[in-house]
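Cross-posting from the modeling subforum.

Setting up a comparison between two proteins and wanted a second pair of eyes on the formatting. Protein 1 (sequence, then structure tokens):
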Amino acid sequence: FQIQRGNSDPNSYKNLSDCFRTIFRNEGISGFYKGILPPIVAETPKRAVKFFTFEQYKKALSLTPLSAGVALSVAGLGAGLTEAVVVNPFEVVKVSLQANRDAFKEQPSSFAQARRIINADGFGRRGLNKGLTSTLGRHGVFNMIYFGFYFNVKDAIPTSPDPTLEFMRKFAIGLVSGTISSCVNIPFDVAKSRIQGPQPVPGEIKYRTCFQTMALVYREEGYLALYKGLVPKIMRLGPGGAVMLLVYEYVSGWLQKNW
């Protein structure tokens, strides 16, 4: 949805159900798994960097006069910015593969697509690190709210002695945290997708920088265009964000207790 340029786009999907039907009809079930390898390869180092750096920033900020609540948000911001540097090349490959409307079997592999991008534009801001500023904004804003909201609200709401209720309490806070973070950071996500995806006119770069792209999308398509793809994003990162924080908390607690 994020790379579509309004109703004038001949390939525009009308809504989420139309998107599912069209992909299934034209590309088969495998069409839903385009660009799956880059996220799989990136996921482990991406999450490791996110939570490791969050802990390091949190420790460093505990030595400053910042309040605990603000320090958690700033630590989340730092973790998000660090994570973005790691994940951006994978995002460039993923978006370019997902924007391709050819059948799954006709597409180049992830490694072939990465080589093609490097050979054409190198590793820099026009190649494998295209859209880095937008990715920094997307991950920085998301993690600032994600960690800040979760840990501040979790500490403000009384714990429950019942393990099941306590689990549900944390899951609900994580779900809200992931949802709010997704709603706030999606303009950066749209800008990232436009920059990393195919340009409207081959050989001509229309979407160049983060804020230039946001302003252009707003001017040409209206402010709602900056929220394209919000529903599937919330469906992915709302419950996904809750699960991720719960796993982090329980695994971290177990490691601290036993190691």
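Protein 2 (same layout):
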Amino acid sequence: LAFALAELIDNSLSATSRISGIRSIQIKLLFDDSQGKPAVAVIDNGRGMTSKQLNNWAVYRLSKFTRQGDFESDHSGYVRPLPVPRSLNSDISYFGVGGKQAVFFVGQSARMISKPADSQDVHELVLSKEDF
């Protein structure tokens, strides 16, 4: 569970890495049955994702370093950090399976809601472990 939560936090750290101002990352454990099934919510004030980026996230083994037509794909100057045991070095999901493994380790479905910083559109992706 700790590594799954670390992966979700790592994704938020990546999403908020280029914002100006204060980063905001919240982790909420929701157990109120009146609101639906128990859930883990990770909320950040990152740059958001377009519908294409959300769909790309849902593709197994599609690394953020190999996505086509995505602003995340230009990592020509990327130098992989030295491995540091049990640390958040923003390199956990290098092979494109981290976020998906994390959400499906924690639960049976994922719901992502995102609004790109430069857009008024809000995008939502719902993915079940069974469908994935």
